[in-house]
Every structure is written in C-alpha cells, then in structure tokens.
Amino acid sequence: RRREISKRQNLRLISLASIAMAEVVRTDYTPKSSFLDDLQVLKAMWFGNIKGGSHQDQLESFYNKQAHLYDQYRHRMLHGRKPLMMKMPVEKDCVWVDLGGGTASNVEFFSKSIKDWFK
Fold it and tell me: 48: Cβ–Cβ under 8 A, 6 or more apart, which residues?
C-alpha cells in the first residue's frame, strides 16, 4: 500500500515538473570554439607560470591566459551539463543555487527567462 502511494506521489511530482519545464524558455547554449582554443587552455593549465603572494593573486595568474576560452573548453569537457540544464525541472519563483558556478555558464541556458522565473 505504501509503495503505491509513494509511486503516485512520484508520478505527480514528475507531472508537475514536466508542466513547469514546458513553460520556461531555455537557450541551447553552445559556445563556439576550436581545437586550437582547447590547446591554448591546456597549455595555460599545464605550463602556466603561477605567480602571486595571495591566493587571489595566484588564481588570477592561473586563469589569466585561459579565462577568455575557459567556458568553451568546459562546455565540451562536461558532457552531462547540457542535457541536465535542458531537462532540469523548474518551478515559477524558484531559487537558483549553483554551487561552484564560477563562470556562471549554467545561467546561459535560462537567459531568456531568468528574470521571470527565478527569485
């Protein structure tokens, strides 16, 4: 009996999520890049000369030569990001929590509707 109730609740949640997903506008975010761009990022990661006394200075030194190409590189490296962002359930006035979202590229998928959908 409990399993049946649990299954019905799960189906109801999936249905609600499907309805919410149908209303939010998502952008097929795919940054343009090339193999040469990837090589530049890898070169900066592997052979970059990290300088600076503080942690902030060291981070800026590390990302300085690759920052303009980093989103493109990560987009192709993280194969599950796009399917997740395209199917993630969204409800009206939900709160966006993006852990480790330093480049904020996940927001690009919802750029057309973020003002109307998220708090």
Answer: 61, 62, 65, 66
The CA-CA-CA angle for residues 71, 77, 80, to 5°, reads 100
Name which of 37, 36, 60 is nearest 49 in CA terms: 60
pLDDT at 94: 77
Do 69 and 40 form a contact (C-beta atoms < 8 A)? yes
Q: What ranges in the chain are assigned the alpha helix state H?
A: 2-23, 35-47, 55-63, 67-77, 81-87, 114-117
On whether the pTM is more than 0.70, the answer is no
Within 8 A by CB and 6+ apart from 55, the residues are none
